[in-house]
Write the structure tokens for this entry.
Amino acid sequence: MNLKILHLVFLVATGIVLSAQGSSLRKIPLDQGWVFNPSDDPAFADVGLNDETWRPIRVDINWDAQGQKELIGYAWYRLRFSLPKEIRDADKLKEGVLLALGKVDDGDQVFLNGEFLGQNGRTFAPGTKPPEFRTGPWDLERVYRLAMDDPRIKWGQENLIAVRVANPNGAGGMHGKGSRFMRLVGLIDFVDFQSDMTPFTFQGNEVVKSFDLVNRSTSNAMTGTLIIEAKELVSGKKVIQNRKNIDIAPSERMTVNLQLGQREEACGISYQIVFKDGETCEYREESPYILTPPAPSSPRINGATLFGAKPGKPFLYTVAASGDRPMVFSASGLPDGLTINAQTGIITGTTPARGTYKVKITAKNAKGEAVRDLEIVSGDRLALTPPMGWNSWNCWGLAVNEEKVVASARNFVEKGLRDHGWTYINIDDGWEIAGASPDPKRDGDGNILVNNKFPDMARLGRRIHDLGLKFGIYSSPGPLTCGGYTGSYQHEQNDANSYASWGVDYLKYDWCSYRRIAKDTSLTELKKPYEVMRDALAKVDRDIVLSICQYGMGNVWEWGDSVGGQLWRTTNDIADTWESMSDIGFSQVDNAPYAKPGSWNDPDMLVIGWVGWGPNLHPTRLKPDEQDTHVSLWCLLSAPLLIGCDLTRLDPFTLNLITNDEVLAINQDSSGKQAYPKIKEGQIQVWVKDLHDGGNAVGIFNLGDAVTDFEVNFEDLGIKGQKKLRDLWRQKDIDLLKGKHSVRIAPHGVVLLKVI
Ligand code: GAL
């Protein structure tokens, strides 16, 4: 193989981190020495309990990765450690100690020396009885803060931490690469870099940001030096080097302004505070950039070129076309029963008899005309290209309501996303009446009732359809959804009928509490609830895409198609971290042969833009280069593309990520093939997807933390006789020299190419 990898000298941090250091904090590491028991007993919190027979366990990776696959329910972790009195004596601030335990999937209760300490990262006062145990935010770093004289701490003695973990589904246990420790609370714990909640903006082409640095201490001033450094990640070019003295009074703030100028790549930025007493803390982030030129003002037809529908059912397909409005649409070869709206490009009517219909779509405006073929396949299969849309879960979680859904639909149109093929507006969990509510969950006929956030589902369906978009909904085959709302168990036909009457086009059907109904995890039991819903959907007068969600159990990709699914989740839930996104994305290999038009592996939804899984959102924690990797990889994988962010807050970088038609065309390619990793060399992975036109999409990914040079020889990828090479993010042709191409890739970044 003719490959060359060169690691450049400068390393950058992974992800946005707030690192804190200072020997004055007397940190005791708690990463090693944990023991584990996969059962549940309140006595496991007791100090006197003999845990010598418990098995040792790692706490940086979940228990599934350590021989406890599919452990659903409760399990306990314990750790003994000694706590020198010297730590207490060294405390100057009198602000107490921190106990950091990493992440826990899904929820934790913590006991210190036999006493209840807290739950899901929240500390409770000594003597408090454990509250009702709810599973928690599985991706949150658990940090408990305690007063120095908290009676639960035993200074100068051995201490015992016992962690009770609840895992209702999927992977479980303590996990996360961050460290676990106990240490003094320091000044660094009061620094609030509000940069994480303040995205960069573009002033003209210049990248700028202004954020507050807040001192959260009510009694101590923040006195020291603030050092700001920024340099381009790939070129290494220094952009800012700046140091100034700071003295921020208790509860006060100072504004930091950052001007990075015009950039075609990310800058790595470090803000470091060196306090007078020697403690330091650092916050790092990376700046966004715009790679893709704007779409031309003349018409360009985008989106799927292949569309499947079932004979005799209502038909809806919207021509996605970018370019200036007004635009006039027409279609030749449209089968009887279908008409195109000349102003909007929305094709409606009744799906014709079985067969393949070749249609020519034309879009015209003052600047020109575009013509493109569309193949309408009337038959048994839906979703012939991966569904593209929005889903409420990664942003609003259970705080979703009708207004937010309508705002998303409007933004699809107003921000031009519909013009790039974005179609589905999907409500996830949280629209149904709560399962625990004393109100009736169903009417006298067994029809499901909605909660007061969704007063009129049929109206919502109409509002979505009027915009030429499609309407998705969520349920569980069990009695309850994962969020505790009413599921479809034993009312599957009622629910399918309700969905049809509301105009639903897509159902995500999530296993959740069905685990209580399934007799075991045999294939028959895993398939059963999806077969029931498939049959119910077959009886209604609409095309409803069935999205199977059961986290990949029983290799669902091998049989998801046979139980009526068009897509199936292959993994547990994604989070907006490099760890989560890259673990999921780069492991989609065994399922690749099963991807084809109408059958898609679903590695979960996109985590770009403002996300939050609840009422309070934050900008994704993925860095810009990681987001390029995320979107490029999902396109190569032919994964369903469901944006999971607040569409009312789309910054130019995020918009650029989801409106590059050449990148999206890789995802929507009519061949329906999934990419394979063809080269794994050091931290470089090269993934190749076959395209319908005989070309290949090639993603060269750098999974490492260092800028890396790489030379790809296309023959090594099995690609022969290629003539043209194009950089898809930049939409630029590249000279191809002797079948080879050299790239320099940012940490966690990608170069996405098309070779033909
Ligand atoms: C999870 C599912 C998520 C979301 C959530 C709703 O099981 O994986 O994607 O749908 O349930 O409660």
